[in-house]
Amino acid sequence: MSKDILGKALLDYLKLEYTEDIVTQSTLDEADVLPLSYMFRNFEQMPYLEQTALKNCKGTVLDIGCGAGSHSLYLQDKGFLVTGLDKSPGAIEVCKERGLLKTLNNNFLNLRDQKYDTLLMLMNGIGIAGKLKNLDQYLNQMKKLLHSNGQVLLDSSDILYMYESDDEDGGYWIPQDVDYYGEVTFTMSYKNEDSEPFDWLYVDFNTLKRAASFNGFECEMLIQGPNDDYLARLTLM
């Protein structure tokens, strides 16, 4: 997303120049809307799954893909030493303007020589892996960034239901050119400007648990959400 569509939109909203929302297109379905106001929600406006994740944070926290910083700011207000990480320069500028004290404008895989007690990956933060084949690389990076007693808190969704067949005999129809049904390609549009296509991963819990175990993590489900979503905790074996 070299055009930083998200960052531009968040900055407009912060500066009271809001006129429209981000529109997303994906290989899954028709156009959808990402309301900018949702990125600025407070704790009471967050889904129960996110609230639970924030309540389970401990120690030093890295908020991966922090966006407008709503999760980070809540934790900072609660006394946590939290760092907001986002590769969007605009998003990081918004976080700073909103009062977040520690930020990193970088790619998650580029981080070195830092250790945290909690890695926080909300709003399907594990999606940054893009493809299932990349999941091992991201899990190994998590291991490098965690203290020995640290944890990863992440949410994702099992989107198999989106491939349900309309046939009377039921079943699922998954395109043959897809390696794993949770792999989706998105574009974002804002004010007549389009992002480059980017890959995003939705991973079902059992697949995540197998990958986590292979890479030296215990994986437990903390919450099963109402929409095939879940909150998981990963800890080092």
TrEMBL record:
GO terms for molecular function: methyltransferase activity. The lineage of its organism: Bacteria, Pseudomonadati, Bacteroidota, Flavobacteriia, Flavobacteriales. This is SAM-dependent methyltransferase. Keywords: Methyltransferase, Transferase. GO terms for biological process: methylation. The keyword Transport does not apply. Residues 59-158 form the Methyltransferase domain.
